[in-house]
Write a structure and sequence with these properties.
Layout: H1 11-23, H2 26-47, H3 52-66
Helix pairs in contact: 2-3
């Protein structure tokens, strides 16, 4: 992990870092944290005095940004 952020990191180095992050559970932890934050944001959004269209747009945006690869 000491190579994270190095400008000359090659594909093999990136793959090695990704492997460590996945093997240690870091990726799962971050995904869980994202899920929790989105759920919290959507709950707060439900309490906001905004129009239905704004509510829908903000909810869609939150889900899109958080889960852009799902």
């Amino acid at each position: 992990l000491e190579r994270v952020g190095e400008p000359d990191l090659d594909t093999a180095g990136i793959a090695a870092i990704q492997s460590v992050l996945a093997a240690t559970g870091a990726v799962d932890d971050v995904e869980r944290a994202i899920d929790d934050r989105v759920a919290e944001a959507l709950t707060v959004l439900d309490t906001m005095p905004i129009s239905r269209s704004a509510h829908a747009a903000l909810g869609d945006l939150a889900r899109f940004v958080a889960w852009r690869d799902r």
